[in-house]
Amino acid sequence: MRAFLFPGQGSQKVGMGREIADCSAVARAVFEEVDEALGQSLFRLMCDGPEDELTLTENAQPAIMANAIATLRVMEAEANVKIADICNFAAGHSLGEYSALCAVGTFDLSTTAKLLKLRGQAMQAAVPVGQGAMAALLGADIEKAQNLAEAAAQGDICTVANDNDPGQVVISGHKSAIDRAITMVKEHGIKRGISLPVSAPFHCPLMQPAADAMASALADANVQDPALPIFANVSASAVSDANEIRSSLVEQVTGRVRWRESSMAMAEVGVTHFVEFGGKVLSPMVKKSIASISDELHIDAVIGMDDIENLLKGL
């Protein structure tokens, strides 16, 4: 069985999408449609920067989605197939869940771009700059991370935001609490805590205003049942109902990204081939998460035309 994966924020970089657009009219059409939906030259920003503008949450989120969907659609065109013909499940990390939902037809491309633009703006506006923070905990499992977050909170918000793999967990909340947590890592048996260069504390209760904004937007959006099941971030389980997807996306704004559990759940239902579109971020997380439960494991990261050709040879 096969699952297609879509990366989240942090996978953006200046130059993304340029090669595949140079090689394929299909890719160019994706970038043009996203530009038109957003009323901005996002693709030019992706290609040429500046980096600080591309990294802004409201730009990075639709840019990462557009790059991943362009790569997927070129692969589909080259093989003359649709995703449901060659794939059993899809999943994405945080904003990547929107990319996955676009890939399986729950949202059309223009709707996905607009939702992600709004999501980025709402997340940025939810907490004043400087009041929130996030940190990656290296050498931490979920139990150690939760214990640290509880100890560091001291009346502030400090929660697990991303459970990425058995050795990497991300916490989010008030900057004061995250700063305390970083100084306390050794006491909790954690190798290291690294402050992340993010503009807001994603996936924690401080994002409630953004969740409210997304609830309103998603209530008005055209949401279709997916062509194949999606493993949702908040439940780490397969969903295939449009209404359930809508509610899980609202919950996702403040809730934990359960990526390690999602990886394991996909392996447990028989997925042995994972294909990441538009990045090489999720692949190592999946490998670490399921190495102990799956002897059969094949992972591909698809970014450019050479990657697409290599993937098609193995399908």
Characterize the structure shown.
The chain is of the alpha/beta class. It is 51% helix and 16% strand. It contains 15 helices and ten strands. The chain has a four-stranded parallel sheet, with helices on both faces. Strands 4-5-3-6 form a four-stranded antiparallel sheet. Strands 7-8 form a two-stranded antiparallel sheet. A hairpin with a 2-residue loop joins strand 4 (158-165) and strand 5 (168-174). Helix 2 crosses helix 8, helix 5 (57-79) packs across helix 15 (305-314) and helix 11 (208-220) runs antiparallel to helix 12 (242-254).
Global shape: globular
What is the CA–CA distance across the termini? 11 Å
The DSSP helix count reads 15
Overall radius of gyration: 19 Å
Which secondary-structure class do the elements indicate?
A: alpha/beta
Number-wise, the strands total 10
Q: What does the largest sheet look like?
A: 4 strands, parallel
Order of helices and strands: EHHHHHHEHHEHEEHEHEEHHEHEH
Helix amount? 40-55%
Average pLDDT for all residues? 96
Q: Which percent band covers the strand fraction?
A: 15-25%
Order the strands across the largest sheet as they lie in space. 2-1-9-10
Give the low-pLDDT segments. none
